[in-house]
Amino acid sequence: MSKMVEVMRHNGGIPILAHIGANIKQDHNQVIDNMLKIGVMGVEVFSSYHSPELANRLYEFTVGRSAFVTCGSDFHGRNKPKIEVGQCAYGPQHIAEIRRFVAAASA
After folding, report:
1. Which of 4, 11, 31, 48 is the least buried, fewest Cβ under 10 Å from its Cβ?
2. What is the pLDDT of residues 53-80, one digit of tens each?
């Protein structure tokens, strides 16, 4: 993982931990902390895999670590027919943090 993060950052990328709730069922904060220590720069907080409660916990934790907050629908066409492109459950109170990532990615 650290080598992948190094390659991404060296090439101007921003490594983001995607939909942690799909793969990790507990100790999310510990996993995120470990990933941030090796250079991951943000967390996909808002995802079709995350309940609103998990998304809120991830948001507070990620913002508290000054890491980037991202969102993603995880749309895969026919494989996930109930998910639409861009379908993310964030609220207006989250937009500033999401825009912070977009600005960094656009720079």
Report:
1. 11
2. 999 999 999 999 999 999 887 777 777 7
Select from 37, 54, 55, 33 the least CA-distant residue to 46: 55
Q: What is the pTM of this model?
A: 0.88
CB-based contact 50:83 (threshold 8 Å) = no
State the DSSP code for 26.
S
Q: Is 70 left (phi over 0), alpha (psi -120 to 50) or beta?
A: beta
For residue 14, what pLDDT is reported?
97
Quote the pLDDT of residue 77: 73
18 closest CA partner among 90, 74, 63: 74
Q: How far is CA 101 from CA 27, 58, 60, 82, in A?
A: 24, 16, 16, 27
User: HSE of 18 in the Cβ direction (CA atoms, 13 Å)?
Assistant: 6
